[in-house]
UniProtKB/TrEMBL annotation:
Keywords: Cobalamin biosynthesis, Methyltransferase, S-adenosyl-L-methionine, Transferase. InterPro entries: Cbl_synth_MTase_CbiT (IPR014008), Cobalamin_biosynth_MTase (IPR050714), SAM-dependent_MTases_sf (IPR029063). GO terms for molecular function: protein methyltransferase activity. This is Precorrin-6Y C5,15-methyltransferase (Decarboxylating) subunit CbiT. Gene3D superfamilies: Vaccinia Virus protein VP39. Pathway: Cofactor biosynthesis; adenosylcobalamin biosynthesis. GO terms for biological process: cobalamin biosynthetic process; methylation. SUPFAM superfamilies: S-adenosyl-L-methionine-dependent methyltransferases. Coiled coil: none annotated. The keyword Chloroplast does not apply. The keyword Transferase applies. The gene is cbiT. It comes from the Bacteria. It comes from Petrocella atlantisensis.
Length: 195
């Protein structure tokens, strides 16, 4: 999907180039249960649900404006089956079913608590966790958390993209914000061997 396909406001949105790589890392398939934490405008949630109608999709967001935008974007594409959860993960969140695919787009400063919650209550065996970060500090915290909690097959990408834009009568490539994408696989059998 193109960025202009989404209803937007002053809420962060995962841009098209980053969204494409993020969704590739998630490897979503029919029958998966997918959780989007810090969903923003819902661009990952909407594209995932729209491209995989057999997914069970849950999206968590704390910002009231963002929740309205997610709802508008879901309605725009007739995605009634997505469960939208208002709150801060994991502090305000009630029951979320076990998930085999999780995306962290925003942590609100609670990355360790979120990953602890995911590994103890949410992730199924062989679950894939993908997170996007833009700061070096969050990149370091994310990498450390993946290894500290015993994720395997850890990999990632550093993306810097630029879009063709007008500069007066001329064209140039206007840079987008760089983004780091991290992925890890949660294997309970590996966890059991570590304990």
């Amino acid at each position: 999907m193109m960025d202009q396909d989404f209803i937007r406001d002053k809420v962060p949105m995962t841009k098209m180039e980053v969204r494409a790589v993020t969704l590739a890392y998630l490897q979503l398939e029919a029958g998966h249960t997918f959780l989007d934490i810090g969903a923003g405008t819902g661009s990952i949630t909407v594209e995932a649900a729209r491209n995989n109608r057999q997914l069970k999709v849950f999206a968590i967001e704390k910002n009231p404006l963002a929740l309205e935008l997610i709802d508008l974007n879901l309605r725009k594409y007739g995605l009634k089956e997505v469960a939208l959860i208002s709150g801060v993960a994991p502090l305000d969140i009630g029951q979320v079913p076990p998930c085999d695919r999780v995306f962290i787009g925003g942590t609100g400063g609670h990355m360790k608590e979120i990953i602890d919650w995911l590994t103890k209550e949410i992730l199924t065996d062989e679950a894939v966790l993908v997170m996007n970060v833009i700061t070096i500090e969050n990149l370091n915290e994310g990498m450390k958390a993946l290894y500290d909690y015993g994720f395997v097959e850890v990999e990632g990408s550093s993306l810097s993209s630029a879009r063709l834009s007008l500069l007066g009568d001329l064209h140039y490539f206007r840079p987008e914000n760089p983004c780091y994408i991290l992925k890890g696989v949660w294997r309970k059998k590996c966890q059991n061997s570590l304990e």
